[in-house]
TrEMBL record:
InterPro entries found in the cross-reference section: ADH-like_N (IPR013154), ER (IPR020843), GroES-like_sf (IPR011032), NAD(P)-bd_dom_sf (IPR036291), Quin_OxRdtase/zeta-crystal_CS (IPR002364), Zinc-ADH_QOR/CCCR (IPR051603)
Membrane-traversing stretches: none
Stated name of the protein: Zinc-binding dehydrogenase
Domain Enoyl reductase (ER): 10-318
Subunit structure of this chain's protein: Homotetramer.
Organism: Chryseobacterium metallicongregator
UniProt KW keywords: Cytoplasm, NADP, RNA-binding
Subcellular location, record wording: Cytoplasm
Principal cellular location given in the protein's record: cytoplasm
Pfam families per record: ADH_N, ADH_zinc_N_2
Length: 320
């Protein structure tokens, strides 16, 4: 089978197409899945360049989303059968999804939504679990709350806008001017151009100095320190971005702010809520572009290129 293998850490050129053998079921609770589509997450290029080198042994197969068909089940598997369409996020640290066949434990599987393609389904598992964890488990977002999603055009942002809207929140987000129409179509009430405007000042103006109830940080940098300046009293900041530098959170006290730090684990229970929203038409996966497995290097170049001509909007998917 075709697999993308990383033998050395580095740039996109270390992603090499290789012929590997199809794995076989070794444990009774395992299933073998024919991968029909997968996607690119920043976690993949972080692993590729060696950010997690202490946790992996080379060679590495990365990839954190699968949409596909079950083609074999272990003898203890009760709830799944050959032919079932599934989607899931492979376990962090295990063998990834940039391949034609993926072996996993049945406990990681979710039924694929029945109204979308494999490509659209592959855009969801990792960010789906993440977004539900951020909005509901941590921030406990409710109808009538106001939320600011920093990085609205990214994979996480495009989904977080739709889910926040479905939950009844008033949604502010940041994104380049050229994407404002698209971001509003997803459900953003107000879009701030982070390339031209200061989001703290804009939120102060829009909310008449009150601030927003929740801030979702998918960007990093100074966001953690600055967020309380745009936050309402007793508001929450939820961040996905680990910054290996000391952060000054002094402004958080004045707002009685709560901080949540999220590192997604396999999250089948959270993903189930996103499946429901997709099947009721409240949420639609947003695809930036689709590449073949063979063109993996180009796909990684696109997600990492900060000077890309056409801005990123949603997820980059690999058709397998
Ligand atoms: N901790 C976890 O469990 C977890 C889970 C998922 C993701 N993450 C992390 O979350 C981050 C976002 O993930 P993603 O999948 O959404 O990435 P992505 O698809 O690459 O999107 C990033 C978005 O952020 C925007 N952006 C960059 N700098 C910005 C700034 N200064 N202000 C506002 N927007 C800015 C980009 O827009 P431009 O076109 O303007 O650059 C782009 O639209 C990544 O760092 C990822 O590693 C963490």
């Amino acid at each position: 089978m075709k697999t993308i293998v990383i033998k050395n850490y580095g740039g996109p050129e270390v992603l090499q197409l290789a012929e590997t053998s199809i794995p076989s079921i070794a444990d009774p609770s395992q299933v073998l899945v024919k991968v029909r589509a997968t996607s690119i997450n920043p976690l993949d290029f972080q692993i590729r360049r060696g950010d997690y080198a202490a946790l992996f042994d080379l060679p590495v197969i990365t990839g954190h989303d699968v949409a596909g068909d079950i083609i074999a089940v272990g003898e203890a598997v009760k709830n799944w059968k050959t032919g079932d369409k599934v989607y899931y996020s492979p376990r962090f640290g295990g063998s990834g999804s940039y391949t034609e066949y993926h072996l996993t434990d049945e406990s990681s599987l979710s039924r694929m939504p029945d109204n979308i393609s494999y490509e659209k389904a592959a855009a969801i598992p990792l960010i789906g679990g993440t977004v539900w964890e951020m909005l509901m488990v941590r921030a406990q977002l409710k109808k009538g709350d106001s939320i600011l999603i920093l990085g609205g055009a990214g994979g996480v942002g495009t989904l977080a806008i739709q889910v926040s809207k479905a939950l009844g929140a008033f949604v502010y987000t940041t994104g380049q001017s050229i994407l404002h129409k698209k971001l509003k179509k997803l459900g953003a009430d107000v879009v701030i151009d982070h390339h031209k405007e200061n989001w703290i000042e804009k939120i102060q103006i829009y909310t008449k100095g009150k601030g927003v109830n929740v801030i979702i940080d998918t960007v990093g940098g100074a966001t953690l320190s600055d967020s309380p300046l745009a936050l309402a009293d007793y508001g929450s900041v939820v961040t996905l971005v680990d910054i290996p530098k000391p952060q000054n959170l002094i402004n958080a006290w004045e707002k009685n702010a709560t901080y949540h730090f999220v590192f997604t684990r396999q999250s089948r229970d959270e993903l189930h809520h996103i499946t429901e929203l997709i099947e009721t038409g409240k949420v639609k996966p947003v695809i930036d572009s689709i590449y073949s497995l063979e063109n993996i290097q180009k796909a990684h170049q696109r997600i990492e290129d900060s000077k890309r001509e056409k801005p990123l909007f949603g997820k980059i998917v690999l058709s397998v």
